[in-house]
Amino acid sequence: MPGAPGTPSPTPPPAAVSDSGAPIFTQPAAQLTGSSITFTGLHSVTLVTVPLADGRRVPVLKLTADDIVIKDFHLNVRKQTGPALISDAGTMELRGNVQVYVDSATATLLDGSPFTLGAATPPPDNGVPPTLLRVNLGLVGVTADSITLIPSHQALRG
């Protein structure tokens, strides 16, 4: 029970800071899955607020890295009504000045244990490992110097 002698109180997540350089995004977040995600040069994981097209700001996690590679990439871009845009690729490569904005992330660590990130569940003190398996992201948006899908296929569904 929190507050009991010898029991540490849970640390509240840090307050979100406004990301003034973030693009304007829409909701709901897209669903991105992959068999693995690998980060090279992961510089930071920060709780920020980003602007939406309707003028609101929402809290998200911003991951900043040199490069990110996602194997067996699948992206489902939904909207409130109408068809969804589905994108598939064997590999998605994000290269140079990568900024990924997510509202949630679940994955499996290399040892098989679960890994979860979100605005209410910031990264553990030892940070985000360089490789995660069975990744599922609530993707709000991404920017990078280069975004490549190899090979890629897109279709409208629904």
Provide the fold topology.
Blueprint: E1 17-18, E2 30-40, E3 44-51, E4 57-77, E5 84-108, E6 114-118, E7 131-143, E8 146-157
Parallel strand pairs: 1-3
Antiparallel strand pairs: 2-4, 2-7, 3-4, 4-5, 5-6, 5-7, 5-8
Give structural notes.
With 158 residues, this protein is mostly beta strands. Helices cover 0% and strands 61% of the residues. It has no helices and eight strands. It has strands at residues 17-18, 30-40, 44-51, 57-77, 84-108, 114-118, 131-143, 146-157. Strands 1, 2, 3, 4, 5, 6, 7 and 8 form an eight-stranded mixed sheet that branches. A hairpin with a 5-residue loop joins strand 3 (44-51) and strand 4 (57-77). The N and C termini lie far apart (47 Å).
Rg result: 17 Å
Uncertain residue segments: 1-9
Number of helices: 0
**Mean pLDDT, rounded to whole units?**
90
Number of strands: 8
Major beta-sheet overview: 8 strands, mixed
- Quickly give the structural class: mainly beta
- Quote the distance from N terminus to C terminus: 47 Å
- The gross shape turns out to be globular
Strand fraction equals over 45%
Q: Would you list the SSEs in sequence order as H and E?
A: EEEEEEEE
The portion of residues assigned to helices is: under 10%
Which short descriptors sum up this protein?
globular, mainly beta, eight-stranded mixed β-sheet, single chain, disordered N terminus, 158 residues
Quick structural gist:
This protein is an all-beta fold.
